[in-house]
Design goal:
Shape of chain B: globular
Largest interface: A-C, 76 and 70 residues
CATH architecture of the largest domain in chain B: 3-Layer(aba) Sandwich
CATH topology of the largest domain in chain C: MetI-like fold
Order of helices and strands of chain B: EEEHEEEHHHEHEHE
Strand content of chain C: under 5%
Largest sheet of chain C: none
Mean pLDDT of chain C: 87
CATH superfamily of the largest domain in chain B: P-loop containing nucleotide triphosphate hydrolases
CATH architecture of the largest domain in chain C: Orthogonal Bundle
Shape of chain C: globular
Number of domains of chain B: 2
CATH superfamily of the largest domain in chain C: MetI-like
CATH topology of the largest domain in chain B: Rossmann fold
Number of strands of chain B: 9
Mean pLDDT of chain B: 90
Helix content of chain B: 25-40%
Radius of gyration of chain B: 17 Å
CATH class of the largest domain in chain B: Alpha Beta
Number of strands of chain C: 0
Radius of gyration of chain C: 24 Å
Distance between the termini of chain C: 27 Å
Low-confidence stretches of chain B: none
Helix content of chain C: over 70%
Chains: A alpha+beta (402), B alpha/beta (209), C mainly alpha (564)
Oligomer: heterotrimer
Strand content of chain B: 25-35%
Number of helices of chain B: 6
Chain lengths: 402, 209, 564
């Protein structure tokens, strides 16, 4: 077989992987050329003023740098974007879709990838992928689901607990310590109501911290062992729930609603999935400056935020350019700046230039943000099936009334 | 013009019930008074002539203006003027605007304006063109309403108790004005005031009862 | 434009245009409810979605909650509206109230709910104003004031918005009932004014406000934003459960959401039937009471009037207080509990979001104006071509279907249908989707005044030899200017506040003040929410101001038209 024939055959075999029509991710100059003049509709949660401002900044940068116009479609819920792509597929709109880029991770990613609603693989062909800490950080799996290039990481997140030191001066080292404190201070803690993303994260964090069989969580739920593995969680919640804010008869709807409760001095302790959120919220006047953060002694779970491209996106090249820009040291540095966003970087410091590394080192993480050493290594997310299952059980036990 | 208004075996039905039936010829210059108790169908008779019977009512027979059968024509092409007991001056138009609304089409802006002014002077209301009709007295309104109808150059005139709401002193005065001005037209007057019939001086037809 | 000449086809065509989206949308929901959603990998038909629905923890309570809050909010709103009208109609105070209705009506549901929440929460403004000097609270008490399991806060949030709406509809219907004459008659027969109004005027008006009442009932049972902000959470109402299912990553929950939407539709239809039965029962009861001829004492009359006045003050006080709270938060620096006022005032929040107002305002205005203009033309066409003596909206009551069918049960299907027609994004599908909701409100607002127009003006114009178009343009439309502007204002305020139809039909590409506000609301930043709620409210208010000032200016020299 000649070389030409081999290449042709390879292209043919590869073709199904790229079944959704679109630019070839390997031809970066071609993508840059195609992207120029495109408008990219980035569907991202619009609930955070600071994130919205960051996305605005990304828009101005990719416009000047690459001639890509970025429009932030502000969503109340990422699921709205999933709904949209589903509706387009249902209507047979396999190209020219309304969404070019989605801020996504975890279960939404798993569902879309599984249903074949995503374009790719493209992530590992982005030029800035070379800078990503793909060995040290959990960017090749998302909630244990292999990413396989169907989404590109742009920020690291890890569970921290925010506490108002005016009322709760000391950090609490474990889930049991939180329960003990709640006994002494009933009504001063709550978490967003599952199936809210952060609420289920609290449940998973508690499960990871309490269970004796952490390895089981990395596999899909096994009906035979489910009851045993989760028993400590339900015992814990049975004890904690009456001690919660409003005796557990009402819950804040979302993470930010929970922040507001700290600001109003209704609660003293809250969970967050962003180590820099507290600092950014203090700078923004949304939290009192007495708020600090801590992690549990046994470590807290962490994951990455990604961007993905729907299979029928209109501006795939432009979307890839934006995804690549998000991985640039410039964007990552800005995202990590607590005065701006306070999101952890996905880059490997060793792969950066001297100057970029120095810029990261020079960042003042802010008064309420833990340094990398204090934060410790992130514990892996359980398989998505755990989240679905314990959220359903939670609804049965605590969310359905008396 | 100068054609008689002829009702040829005109009958008005409400559903299946016949309200009235009559034949009548009204010559130009003649005022025929139709009298009858409430509910006898006096107003329906006029609506049948103008072609504006409400839903659920219908008419049989013919309405003729001379030899022209009006039955096939929409109301606005029948050239039959009508005055109600309310002046029904359009509240959104000025006094002059009301008259210009009635004025038959044609003529330049200035000509039309001049005709309106002349008409106003004719009824003793010179300079009233820009007034809000709501600010006029009852007698003034009645005169404007009459003039508006006459300016539309009707071939016949119907009067639906037009004097009923005027007080006693005004009534005679307006009545006189109407009959003077309507001279040369066939006129049907519907009323239950015998004084109206006397003043009209023409034949009296009684329906119902 | 006469019903009897070749325009008879128009009403069915308009009716079809308005119903098609609902029908297509419903079809798009029935299929997934029966287990068929190929895009998500489910094909064939099964009862699995309904089985999953039945197994939902707390479903019974959620259903009960939806029915209870919906019916209670509607009954209370109606009772308050009638009480106010019976006690005060015809007085100067009522005239002022009529004019004050517009701003109250313009406040979007979400903004009103946020205002109420910021006002009455344990850490809310009222608690701050009386703490700690009166209550002794140095921290917010752990009281279940919002999100209470009985849904009382939710009912309150619905009532403060629905009373102004019902009142506007009642005021529009009043002139046809000739209330002054009826009251005079009732009083001459020895009835007090309140009782006279209840016995003499209400029976004439009720049929005219029946549809708006049904719309209120359907809306209250299915409200999403108000329920999210004020409603209970363990469990929430059925509408919130459906919302949660559509937000579930696991795609089989889309099927459950569709089945839930079908259940919700059934509940609404059932509640409407129940309401209708109650109407009949009440009417029978009233006939018996009227025949008994009870006049009641003077004391009861005074008490009812006083109660009406107190309730008016309460409703407008809560709405107004909520708006003031929003205004305060929008300019608040740090504001900890129990400070009665912010420690500092700042324009930072306004400055930060001002950049986004421009485009969102333009989009909002463009969509609202276009939609309302089309709706007005369609509504007038429908009304004008209705056979003489027949009310257009009575014949085509189906037009009001979009107000009664829960949004969530047909919007996703409508979205799919629009995409299938190649109208997946941009202004056109947004305007089409808005039209489905705006048109019924415009027709509802216009039908009564049009029917009340003295038909003799038209007869007079005909006898003055004016053709159809001249009569329309030079007589009826000018006479209807005020109600048309009011209808346009109602339509625009509806359009401004639409969230789901904008998001779903526009593919998220048309950012309006409301989509921005609701996305931000998801973030819970109280200052940002306040800014957008105020801007959104202001946007909805502008058309009402135009509707109020327009006729006053245009008709400044026309005494009979200057006031309603």
């Amino acid at each position: 077989m000649s070389l030409k024939q081999t290449l042709a055959l390879a292209a043919l075999t590869l073709w199904p992987a790229l079944a959704s029509a679109g630019p070839t991710p390997t031809n970066w100059p071609g993508i840059l050329a195609e992207a120029r003049g495109q408008t990219v509709y980035w569907n991202a949660w619009g609930g955070s003023t600071t994130t919205n401002a960051f996305i605005d900044w990304v828009g101005t940068r990719v416009a000047t740098e690459y001639g890509v116009k970025l429009e932030h479609v502000k969503l109340a819920d990422t699921a709205d974007a999933v709904t949209r792509v589903l509706a387009e597929r249902q209507a047979g709109l396999d190209g020219g879709g309304a969404i070019d880029l989605i801020w996504i991770n975890g279960a939404n990613f798993a569902a879309m990838k599984d249903a074949g609603l995503l374009f790719g693989p493209f992530a590992e062909n982005l030029p800035n992928w070379a800078l990503v800490d793909s060995n040290g950080k959990t960017v090749t799996t998302d909630f244990t689901v292999p990413v396989e290039g169907f989404e590109s990481p742009w920020a690291m997140a890890q569970v921290v607990f925010m506490h108002d030191t005016a009322d709760l001066p000391e950090r609490l080292g474990s889930m049991s310590a939180i329960l003990d404190w709640a006994r002494a201070h009933p009504g001063r803690f709550t978490y967003p109501q599952p199936p809210d993303f952060l609420g289920t994260t609290f449940l998973k964090q508690a499960l990871v911290d309490l269970t004796s069989d952490a390895a089981a969580l990395q596999q899909p739920v096994d009906d035979a062992t489910y009851a045993v593995v989760t028993a400590p969680l339900w015992t814990y919640l049975d004890a904690l729930t009456p001690l919660l804010w409003r005796q557990g008869r009402a819950y804040p709807a979302t993470g930010p609603a929970q922040l507001q409760l700290i600001a109003d001095d209704e609660i003293d302790l809250a969970i967050s999935f962003s180590p820099g959120e507290a600092t950014a919220a203090i700078a923004d006047g949304q939290l009192p400056d007495t708020v600090r953060t801590f992690v549990l002694d046994g470590g807290t779970i962490g994951n990455a935020s990604f961007v993905a491209i729907p299979y029928n996106a209109s501006a795939k090249a432009g979307a890839m350019v934006v995804a690549n820009f998000l991985l640039s040291p410039e964007a990552q540095l800005r995202a990590q700046d607590p005065a701006i966003l306070g999101y952890g970087t996905v880059l490997d410091m060793a792969r950066l230039t001297e100057a970029d590394r120095a810029a990261f080192d020079a960042l003042d993480l802010g008064l309420a943000t833990l340094g990398p050493a204090e934060l410790g290594p992130a514990r892996p997310e359980p398989h998505p099936s755990w989240m679905t299952r314990i959220a359903a059980d939670w609804a049965q036990r605590y969310g359905a009334g008396l | 013009m100068d054609e008689p208004l002829i009702l040829d075996d005109l009958a008005v039905f409400s559903g299946a019930r016949r309200l009235l039936q009559l034949s009548l010829t009204v010559r130009p210059g003649q005022v025929v008074t139709v009298m009858g108790p409430s509910g006898s169908g006096k107003s329906s008779l006029l609506a049948a002539i103008t072609g504006t019977l409400p839903a659920g009512m219908r008419a049989t027979g013919q309405v003729l203006l001379g030899k022209m059968n009006l039955g096939a024509l929409p109301p606005e092409r029948r050239r039959i003027g009508i005055l109600f007991q309310d002046d029904l001056l359009f509240p959104h138009l000025s006094v002059g605007g009301n008259l210009a609304f009635g004025l038959a089409q044609g003529g330049s802006r200035a000509e039309r304006r001049a005709r309106v002014d002349a008409a106003l002077a004719d009824i003793g209301l010179a300079g009233f063109a820009d007034r809000d009709p709501a600010t006029l007295s009852g007698g003034e309104k009645a005169r404007v309403a009459l003039m508006r109808t006459l300016l539309s150059e009707p071939c016949a005139l119907l009067l639906d108790e037009p004097f009923a709401k005027l007080d006693q002193s005004l009534r005679a005065q307006v009545r006189q004005l109407v009959f003077d001005r309507a001279r040369g037209l066939p006129v049907i007057l519907v009323t239950h005031d015998p004084a109206d019939a006397d003043a009209a001086g023409g034949p009296v037809v009684t329906i119902g009862g | 434009m006469r019903g009897r000449s070749g325009t008879g086809l128009l009403p069915p065509v308009i009716l079809g245009l308005m119903l098609l989206p609902v029908a297509a949308g419903l079809a798009g929901t029935v299929m997934p409810a029966m287990g068929h959603l190929p895009a998500a990998g489910f094909s064939g038909f099964s009862l699995m979605p309904f089985a999953m629905l039945a197994e939902t923890p707390g479903l019974g309570r959620a259903v009960g909650l939806s029915i209870w809050t919906g019916i209670a909010a509607t009954a209370l709103s109606l009772a308050i509206t009638i009480l106010i009208a019976a006690g005060w109609a015809g007085t100067r105070a009522f005239g002022r109230l009529e004019r004050g209705l517009a701003p109250l009506l313009a406040v979007p549901h979400a903004a009103a709910a946020f205002g109420l929440a910021f006002l009455i929460a344990p850490s809310g403004w009222i608690a701050r104003l009386v703490s700690p000097w009166l209550t002794g609270w140095t921290r917010p008490p752990d009281l279940l004031v919002l999100a209470d399991p009985a849904g009382l806060a939710l009912i309150a949030g619905l009532v403060i918005k629905e009373v102004p709406f019902l009142m506007l509809m009642l005021v529009a219907a009043l002139p046809q009932a000739n209330p002054a004459q009826r009251i005079r008659l009732a009083r001459s027969l020895g009835y007090g004014p309140v009782r006279g109004w209840l016995r003499g005027v209400l029976p004439a008006i009720y049929p005219q406000i029946r549809l708006p009442i049904y719309a209120v009932l359907a809306y209250s049972m299915t409200a999403i934003d108000t329920a999210l902000i004020l409603g209970p959470t363990t469990p929430p109402t059925l509408s919130i459960l459906i919302l949660r299912w559509t937000a579930q990553p696991a795609l089989d929950y889309r099927l459950v959401a569709a089945a839930g939407a079908m259940l919700q539709l059934g509940l609404v239809v059932g509640a409407l039937a129940l309401w209708r039965l109650a109407e009949i029962g009440y009417a029978r009861l009233m006939v018996m009471r009227v025949c008994a001829g009870a006049r009641g004492g003077h004391g009861a009359e005074t008490a009812l009037r006083a109660l009406g006045g107190a309730v008016t003050a309460l409703v407008s006080g809560i709405l107004g207080g909520g708006l003031v709270t929003l205004a305060l938060w929008s300019i608040a620096g740090p504001w900890g509990f129990p400070m009665p006022l912010p420690e500092a005032l700042t324009g930072v929040t306004w400055a930060r979001h001002a950049a986004h107002f421009g485009e969102a305002s333009l989009n909002t205005a463009f969509v609202a104006l276009t939609t309302t203009a089309i709706a007005l033309v369609l509504a007038l066409t429908l009304i004008e071509t209705a056979p003489a003596g027949q009310r257009a909206d009575r014949a085509g009551w189906l037009i009001y279907l979009p107000l009664i069918v829960p949004q969530i049960s047909f919007l996703p299907g409508l979205q799919t249908a629009l995409i299938g027609m190649g109208l997946g994004q941009g202004f056109t599908p947004v305007v089409m989707a808005h039209l489905v909701f705006v048109f019924p409100y415009v027709l509802l607002s216009l039908a009564d005044p049009h029917a009340a127009l003295d038909p003799r003006y038209d007869q007079m114009a005909r006898s003055l030899r004016q053709g159809a178009w001249a009569r329309l343009w030079r007589v009826r439309l000018p006479l209807l200017l005020r109600p048309m502007l009011t209808a346009a204002a109602v339509g625009m305020s509806v359009s401004v506040a639409l969230y789901l139809p904008t998001l779903l039909a526009g593919g998220g590409r048309i950012a309006t003040l409301t989509t921005e506000a609701l996305a931000l609301a998801a973030g819970g930043d109280r200052r940002a929410i306040s800014v957008f709620a105020l801007v959104q409210g202001a946007a909805a208010l502008v058309p009402f101001v135009v509707a109020a000032l327009g006729p006053a200016i245009i008709w400044r020299n026309r005494r009979d038209l200057r006031h309603g």
